[in-house]
Specification:
Layout (H helix, E strand, L loop, with lengths): L56
Length: 56
């Protein structure tokens, strides 16, 4: 049996900064924040093929 080893460095997305918005209600002055926190970022998927004979 042959064994190859490789180090792969990956980084998913940061998800963004969210939105800086404020609620607008009729009887509430300065209604408070309504923006979001941004997303969770991206995912990383790895697919392998047992039929390959090299890591190139």
């Amino acid at each position: 049996m042959f064994l190859d080893r490789v180090k792969i460095f990956v980084k998913a997305g940061a998800g963004g900064d969210g939105a800086a918005t404020f609620r607008q209600e009729a009887h509430v002055p300065r209604g408070g924040p309504a923006g979001g926190d941004g997303g969770r970022g991206g995912s990383i998927h790895v697919r392998v093929d047992a039929g390959q004979t090299t890591l190139r």
